[in-house]
Amino acid sequence: MAGLAATYGSGSMTNSIACIEKADVILITGSNTTENHPVISAYVKRAVTRRGARLIVVDPRRTKISEFARIHLRHHLGTDVAWINGMMHVIIQEDLYDKPYVESRTVGFDELKRMVAKFTPDFVESITGIPADQLVAAARLYASGRPGSILYCMGITQHTTGTDNVKALAALAMLCGNVGVVGGGVNPLRGQNNVQGACDMGGLPDVYSGYQKVTDPALRAKMAKAWGVDTLPGKPGFKATEMIPKADSGELRALYIVGENPLVSDPDLNHAEHCLRKLDFLVVQDIFLTETARLADVVLPSTCFAEKEGTFTNTERRVQRVRKAVDPPGEARADLSIICDIATRLGYPMHYEGAEAVFSEIGRVTPAYAGLSYRRIEKEGIPWPCPVPEHPGTPVLHQGSFSHGKGVFFAIDYIPPAETADEDYPLYLTTGRVLYHYHTGTMTMKSEGLMDRAPECFVEISAADAADLGVENGGRVKVSSRRGSIEAVARVSQRVNPGTLFIPFHYAKAAANRLTNARLDPVSGIPEFKVCAVKLAKAA
Amino acid sequence: MGEDRQNVIIINGNRCPFEPGETILEVARRHDIDIPTLCHLKGATPTGACRVCVVEVEGAASLMASCVTPADAGMVVHTESPKVVAARRRVLELMLASGNHNCTIHGADESDWTAMQLKVMADDQAQALCPVWGDCRLQDLAFRYQATAQDYERAETPYPQELVNPFIVRDFSRCIRCGRCVQACNEVQVNNAINFGFRGAALKIVTAGDHPLRDSDCVFCGECVQACPVGALVEKSARYRVRPWETTRTRTTCSYCGVGCQLELHVADGKVVRVTGAEDVAPNYGSLCVKGRFGFDFIHSPERLTKPLVREGDQFREVTWDEALDRVTEGLAAARDHHGADAVGVLCSARITNEENYLLSKLTRAALGTNNIDHCARL
């Protein structure tokens, strides 16, 4: 997000999902697409099998989607900037880049060129473990196809260098003239149903809806007027990953959590729990008594998607309707009316006829949503920006020019991950998801069928490591990091490289995030979930 | 004008311009002329396998499958001529005779029908005719063309039902081998888990090695269930429990990942009982994954919170909304008043709606007076 916004002026998927089927070459990295975005993975697989699009996958794990790839590069965890710079090195060296595009639409090429000069295929191999000839082949393949689409996910962003990784990918795409064209783009796949919408609506510490900065006095005045208050605070707030530690230091005293379960999803859970317990007051609004809700002073029962009206904005910025199909259970109430009641009781009267009235207000204060209405999205959602009611929506961003004029090449150097393997913790751990579960499992673990398919936590381990450590497939193992330890079943697998373990983070009982490192990307505040150092032994 | 005359065919007396490469079926549908299909699956390669879509083309020696026959300038096509209707009826009769298609509209010998029905009910351990009665393409077509299986000997299916996975029942006795599931799996979802196996009368849709779905490459996206025009592939949780005429449908957006698939929630007695993908609309055009299609149990889970709770020591006490909201207001206001607005934080959510997130931003900034709002986009 932050990386894309810095490069292009906007931090969302540049292209539509449908664009994937128009790509000539597709580069997927840090995305276990078939398990985490199955329906998008079908677009990719159709492009490859039915239309002959060429797929490059760069991922340390041997994922299902990698079986469809011409080239699968398996790099060491946390070395993304190195391989991306390496590809750009080859593309510039061999004169395969789009010169007219670079000249007319970008700035910073010379600095980029100087930076990537040292990232020769051999140098990159020494960092990433990717054989030099494979890197060259991948670079040529990506540069040879127009349009080329890049898809990425948390495997790119959940690093201390996540913003750097994204900036580097964004540069790679611009270098080949693939941004602002149908079938191309740089496309972060959003993990949760309404991440895009939560960001769009100003669910962020530094912006109002539509990414209008709280630090801009004119925007602050506009919003204060719209919201009927004299002033609004101008200092950006704390990020979620900062809020929790600030509870420990006493800077944060009360927290209102709606529909989130940080006690499974946050890094270094033992510390997170300690922090939440130190709050003077915690209120949790959710549909289940989650691990987080159990710590609350007040728990408010709310509604799930099937019980309310509203909109979600999907990963391709398409604003779509949510409709009520059933009544909420017991006395559970729609979040919308709970929020209005709390605001009103806090002395700030808030009353709406319903979700549609709120949506109208969103349109009045949010330029990208101004042209949208429930009537317009009744049959099919529309991707923002949609500034006026006559506007058809924008499936492809940055056509003709970038949101902030010219695209910016950032020259980024490689920085190793925050924690590296050593004598005490000799293995690397990376985390992720499985097809049958979703995030912290509060929804999917209520399904007998899904639990039948994926009943418990497991540790993927290579055959070589398993043999070294005397671990058998199906045996219980204990995995420990500097922050905690968990027990789970070993799954000896070719999917991970020797020296690396994989654990899905869904399971509260064996929460992988008891092990993960809470070190954050300095810009985005994203924790380094994808790399930490651990040790493994047979469980006692 | 000259070019216009070239690229025109006549369907049932209507002038229908076409684009080169279009099939007769595509031209007809674009002009709102109905040609019934059975095996044809949108987005997949037409196969012409089932022969239900045959049409009469003047001057052609035989009837032609409209889904695979390209339109050719000057063609004169009849979609419901006596020859076409007779051929369709025969095709349907053979399908009806091929297994447990026991809904047969009329004309079957009554005693024979009863014996068959009792056997099917015993096989299915059910008290109803068929799990998809009223929601079956074959039944619809049999009714439309008044086809029955009375002139043919009914074939027994050698393969037992597969009940061993949590999501999908495979009932080979109702399979008409149209191949829609194979195309859904291989061409639409590209999971390549099933294909045609064996030959002739033994033809069966199989996984690699003919193992049950749970021991195959199947990922239970259920694309095959949605594509199945008969009762051969049915959601286990809905089979014989959900009758289509007893449900209402609500179009909405899936609440799992960020793709935002469009769903139909099928509701009976105030409960979501089945989920299908909404066809013909972005971004998923009917496709779903296992979570979206089968992971809806949480909606009616007995573990759902139904009453506001407040903490008393290590326990929670159920309270009225009034009391709960008073406590919330006191708690937030106390922190704000004693430690400043920035001592209060709000975590909104990637799970709730835009409207709710917007109001939380407004509450945080306008009512509490801080910018301490975020959500777990990063996690």
SSE layout and pairing:
The complex is a heterodimer of chains A (540) and B (379).
Chain A (H helix, E strand, L loop, with lengths): L1 H7 L16 E5 L3 H4 L1 H14 L2 E5 L12 E3 L6 H14 L5 H7 E2 L1 H8 L4 H8 L3 H13 L3 E5 L1 H4 L4 H14 L10 E3 L6 H6 L6 E2 L3 E2 L3 H11 L12 H10 L4 E5 L3 H4 L3 H9 L3 E6 L11 E4 L8 E4 L4 E5 L12 H11 L9 H11 L16 E2 L23 E2 L18 E6 L15 H6 L4 E4 L1 H7 L6 E5 L4 E8 L7 E5 L12 E4 L6 E2 L3 E7 L2
Parallel strand pairs in A: 1-2, 1-5, 2-3, 4-15, 5-6, 9-10, 10-11, 16-20, 17-19
Antiparallel strand pairs in A: 7-8, 12-13, 13-14, 16-23, 18-19, 18-23, 21-22
Helix pairs in contact in A: 1-10, 4-7, 4-8, 4-10, 7-8, 13-15
Chain B lengths: L1 H5 L1 E4 L2 E4 L6 H7 L23 E4 L6 E2 L10 E3 L3 H15 L13 H15 L12 H8 L23 E3 L9 H9 L5 E4 L6 E4 L15 H5 L5 E3 L12 E6 L8 E7 L2 E7 L12 H5 L14 E4 L2 E4 L2 H19 L4 E4 L6 H15 L4 E2 L5
Parallel strand pairs in B: 1-5, 15-16
Antiparallel strand pairs in B: 1-2, 3-4, 3-5, 6-9, 7-8, 10-11, 11-12, 13-14
Task: Give an overview in words.
The complex is a heterodimer of chains A (540) and B (379). In chain A, the strands form 7 sheets. Chain A has a 6-stranded mixed beta sheet. In chain A, strands 3-2-1-5-6 form a 5-stranded parallel beta sheet, sandwiched between helices. Chain A is globular and about 65 Å long. In chain A, a hairpin with a 3-residue loop joins strand 7 and strand 8 (212-213). In chain A, helix 1 runs parallel beside helix 10 (162-175) and helix 13 crosses helix 15 (269-277). Chain A folds into 3 domains: 2-189, Dimethylsulfoxide Reductase, domain 2 (3-Layer(aba) Sandwich), CATH 3.40.228; 195-383, Rossmann fold (3-Layer(aba) Sandwich); 427-538, Barwin-like endoglucanases (Beta Barrel). Helix content of chain A is 31%, strand content 18%. Chain B has 379 residues and is of the alpha+beta class. Chain B contains 10 helices and 16 strands. Chain B has a 5-stranded mixed beta sheet with strand order 2-1-5-3-4, sandwiched between helices. In chain B, 49% of the residues are buried. The mean pLDDT of chain B is 91. The chains are: A alpha/beta (540), B alpha+beta (379). At the A-B interface, helix 3, helix 11, helix 12, helix 13 and strand 9 of A face strand 10, strand 11, helix 8, strand 13 and helix 9 of B. Strand 9 (254-258) of chain A pairs parallel with strand 15 of chain B.
